[in-house]
Each structure stands twice: as structure tokens, then as C-alpha cells.
Amino acid sequence: MIDPRAIIDPTAELDSDVHVGPFSIIGANVHIGAGTWVGPHVVINGHTRIGKNNKIYQFASLGEAPQDKKHKPEDVTFLEIGDGNEIREYCTMNRGTVQGGGYTRIGDDNWIMAYTHFAHDCHVGNHTIFANNSSLAGHVTIGDHVILGGFSLVHQFCRMGEHSFSGAGSVIFQDVPPYVTVAGNRAKAYGINKEGLRRRNFDKETIQALYRAYKIIYRNNYTQDEAIEHLEALAQQYPAVHTYINFLRESQRGIVR
Fold this sequence. Notes:
This protein is of the alpha/beta class. It has two domains: 7-139, UDP N-Acetylglucosamine Acyltransferase, domain 1; 198-250, Up-down Bundle (Udp N-acetylglucosamine O-acyltransferase, Domain 2), CATH 1.20.1180. Helices cover 16% and strands 27% of the residues. The protein has helices at residues 194-199, 204-218, 224-235, 242-250; strands at 7-8, 13-14, 19-20, 25-26, 30-32, 37-38, 43-44, 47-50, 55-56, 61-64, 78-81, 86-87, 92-94, 103-106, 111-112, 117-118, 123-124, 129-130, 135-136, 141-142, 147-148, 153-154, 159-160, 165-166, 171-172, 180-183, 188-192.
């Protein structure tokens, strides 16, 4: 399962059915779980733990030192990747920083297209899609079922809530609430991700309630506290609206408008 032309550090831990293609390099302190396929010319370094049944294509670079001037060579930081991810050509994922908590984390069943970059201390959930050349700066948090269009850029410390969507070429400088579609440079809000919600089997009534919640946040000129008060009333009937409320309360950068 390991091509003789690959270079594997003797301290790396690979499950017995891991496939490693020719000319790939796997360094010390790397752990790779069962069923994971590593193509040719892949480099995996650092304290990197990769779960089961991932597929990593040629020229990806995983677990290299963070692109942060505060990082020191002696700092021990980590990259963790879950199960069932598809990581395409030329993707880069950096380890965390000591200042940022030490970890970059990627969840399960994510589809990560070519030339995507995840900087240090990013936390990515499950079932996301990153189209080609989408990039996350440091300390970004991406919720479950988020989709980033090609060439989308997310500024450091921003968050994208679950089921949100960015159009191609979006430049995101503030938090994107759950369910919301954004586009443009700078990114602006353009309604909710109705099609994505339908595909994920949200019922029509819930989708309508989430759109009503969107209008409370964006269309009624409420302050954030006033919007939360109206959202709480709506959430009594539609529990999914609580996701908006929690996100707004936790937002540190303000939300995309």
C-alpha cells in the first residue's frame, strides 16, 4: 500500500491499509487512519493527525508551520483532520499557533477543492464545500454545511455560521450568520440559502421562518438587541431560529450587512 518511492519517517504511524503514492513525504509525528489514500507528491509534516477514509490528492501540503511571524520552530502545535474528507490538488493546511490555542481542526466529510488554503488556528466543521482557490486567514471558524464559492476570501477571526453560502469572489470581513447568502467585495448579505436548505431537507415552514428571521435582522432597522428580542419570540415557535440568536450574541466582529 506504500509506494517504494515514498519517504516515510520511521516514527510516523500509518494504519496498515493506508495508501501512499510515489514521491510523497510523510514526516515524524504524523498519524494517518485506516482507509486513507494519499496520492503522489503529497507532503505531510508536523504534529498532524488524519482520520479514516480521507482522499488526499497530489501536491497537497498538510501540517506545515503556520505563516505567523510569532511562531517559533520549537513551538509544538497541531493539525487535526477528521474522516471522509476529499482534499484536492495543491491544498495547504497549516498547524495552529501557541497564541491561537495550538490547533487547526478540520471535521468530517468535507469537499475541499484545488488550491484551497486553511491558515493557522482555523476550525472547520462537517459537510462543507470549498470551491477552488477559496482561502481562510488565521483563526477563522466555519460551521457545518457551509459552502464557499471559488476565490472566496475570509478575513482573520471571522466566522461563517452553519448552512451559510458565499458567492464566487466574495471577500468577507465580518461574520456571516447561519443560513445567510453573501457575495461581493466587500461581501454583502443577499437573503438566505434557500436552495441549500431545501437540499438538506428543511421543511418549507422552517425555511419561511428562517427567512422571517433574516428580515428581522436585516430589513427592519432594529438594533442588534431589538433584533434578538424579536427573534426570541419567533424562536418559541421555530427552534431553528435559536441558531441566529446564539450567533449574534457570540459575534465579535459584527455581521456582514
